[in-house]
Each structure stands twice: as C-alpha cells, then as structure tokens.
Amino acid sequence: AGIEYTGITDLRLVLETQAIHTLNAGDHLIVSDTETSTYFQVTRDFFNDTLSLDLFLVHLNPGSGKILRMSGAYDLADGIEVEAGLIFYDAGSTRTILYPYTDQDRIFMRLKYSF
Fold first, then answer.
1. What is the pTM assigned to this prediction?
2. Residue 115: C-alpha distances to residues 77, 78, 84 (Å)
3. Which of 26, 54, 68, 80 could connect to 88 by a Cys-Cys bridge, CB 3.0–4.6 Å?
4. Number of H helices, E strands in the chain
C-alpha cells in the first residue's frame, strides 16, 4: 500500500509499506516468516527544475536495519546532468539481510549525457 502527495509545487512525498508472509519458512532462511518494509521519499525541485534534491529512506522490520540515500542532480545544459549522493546502511543485528553492508556506506557521482 502506498500514497503519493504532489499538492505543493515542486515537492513530492511518497510513503509505501509492504508486508510479505512466507509459508513454511524454515530456520535455514535469513529472513523471518513475516517481513515488513516501509519506504519514504521526498523529492524537491529548485531553479525551474534545474536542481533536484532527493531523500529516500527504507526501514525494514523493527530491528532489521535501514537504508538512507541522499542525492542531488543538476542540469548543466540541455542533455547533460551531474548527480552526486550518499548511501548509508544500518543493520539492526548480525542476522539481518543488511549486515554484509554495515561498513559499506557509499559516495557516488554520475555524469549523464542524453542525446
């Protein structure tokens, strides 16, 4: 289930949640038999859609971890865009699917040319 709100100029808010239940889940799976996830995103455009800032948060089962992604994209010229951002991983415990990414936070940059 989800909801998206775009009633404020140049602002978009998104909230989604999902629940997955696995029948006959055994102990060999790293995930529990019922998984819930919540996603929240805020996107705001500035300077006549030249600059776009984005915040995206994923919250897994209580205690299972979070992912936070912050990014910004800027249109340098027609068809040329530069984007940069950060991604943070927070595992709730050693038995979560995010645990291998605990010390793998990222900084990224992208140059995109569209023709």
1. 0.79
2. 12, 9, 21
3. 68
4. 0, 7
